[in-house]
């Protein structure tokens, strides 16, 4: 479960969002460029600090302005896939997927087994020793997804995962994302401009405009009232 | 009517050959003159002279130490400089570039006024019996002052160009900032940093003006290779030529290394 209420003054407007995403649920975040979608993801991941509010993921408070809690990004255990997939160009596919496990000091044999399983699941076996500059856009997205879920995240953040994909790869990546979120039963926020009318049943569409959620309903308050949300805490 | 700017192919070819030929000849001929004034026996025999070996050892040692200090202090400085916005950042940018355009003699005088026996800082060091001017430390300090921009400029440009989403992704995957630096930032900038470093070494090796002002020209103590050339001009011309040839060979080798590194970087991108 992701539960947040955050405010941050941006250059032209105040971003003020209050939302919850259940395990296994997609929150499809859409809206114009500069509406605050990526800013919101960066606050959840810990790369930006909200001015007010709180963020809780999987029952743990990862940010709370009132009590001064700010967990650094490396301790949040959030899978974050950036727009450009950010595949580390000097590492192979397998090394990319293993990166988070290596950073956590996981034993090599355990790590190798886990990475091999993911590579098989993502159908990347033939590419496992390739470097990023040999991959297509769709393959890069799959590697980025594999790398993000390797750390067993409590939450998945996907920033425009379909942007660079052509129509043949798009359904593959989309199915893969759907499969991951459902099987690992974690909440997922997906930023996209391509909302289709055939989104799966476990998804909810949310439109952001100038830092506020405008569809399907507005939760926005100019100032987040922490006490009114406290009962969401699980 | 539009003017006719078309020139014949043969004219273009002639201009190309003459201009490129002029550039190459102007740069190569004086260097060839050095080699024409030497011969293998003379080169070998003056290579054995203590004046030459002392200068060679001193130059290589001081330039290496200067390079190591520049890397240790300059790498984090360049990284944070490129990642942070802070008041006075543009002034720091100018300061980093300043030694490139500042006459080395000015740098030497400035260092002397700071660290010399009567200097702003040096007078207090002198009270404790520490003298920097006219020692090997002054040689290294002069080299750091004039050579640091070659590494710092390269490093801050490389760190600035590096897509921050690589580092953010690595952090989100559980890597500490230091782990990210060691496994993502350094490998992705390594070749560029190395070529900046090699340029820094070359500049330190060739340093003359600031060194003679703040460290003097004491054989075996502060007389680096360029200073030894200057010293030998008065008497032992062969020694001057031999050291010059050595420096030409080292510089040529350094430029070759950089050219290889740049090509490899081009292939990676």
Describe the structure.
The complex is a heterodimer of chains A (234) and B (269). Chain A has helices at residues 37-45, 93-103, 108-121, 137-150, 170-184; strands spanning 2-9, 14-21, 26-30, 52-57, 60-64, 69-70, 78-81, 155-159, 188-191, 203-209, 212-215. Chain A is α/β, with parallel strands linked by helices and 234 residues long. Chain A has one domain (2-221): Rossmann fold (3-Layer(aba) Sandwich). A six-stranded mixed sheet of chain A has the order 7-8-9-3-10-11, sandwiched between helices. Chain A has a five-stranded antiparallel sheet with strand order 2-1-4-5-6, covered by helices on one side. In chain A, strand 4 and strand 5 (60-64) form a beta hairpin. In chain A, helix 2 (93-103) runs parallel beside helix 4. Chain A is globular. The model of chain A is unreliable at 217-234 (pLDDT under 50). By secondary structure, chain B is mainly α. Chain B has helices spanning 9-36, 40-47, 50-83, 89-101, 104-115, 122-127, 136-161, 164-172, 177-206, 209-214, 225-233, 237-268. The longest helix of chain B is centred in the N-terminal third of the chain and has 34 residues, at 50-83. In chain B, 34% of the residues are buried. In chain B, helix 5 crosses helix 7 and helix 7 packs across helix 9. Chain B is built from twelve helices and no strands. Chain B has one domain (52-268): MetI-like (MetI-like fold, Orthogonal Bundle), CATH 1.10.3720.10. Classes of the chains: A alpha/beta (234), B mainly alpha (269). The A-B interface holds A 45-47, 72-80, 82-84, 86, 88-90, 99-100, 102-104, 133, 144, 147-148, 150-151 and B 163, 165-166, 168-176, 179, 183-184, 187-188, 268.
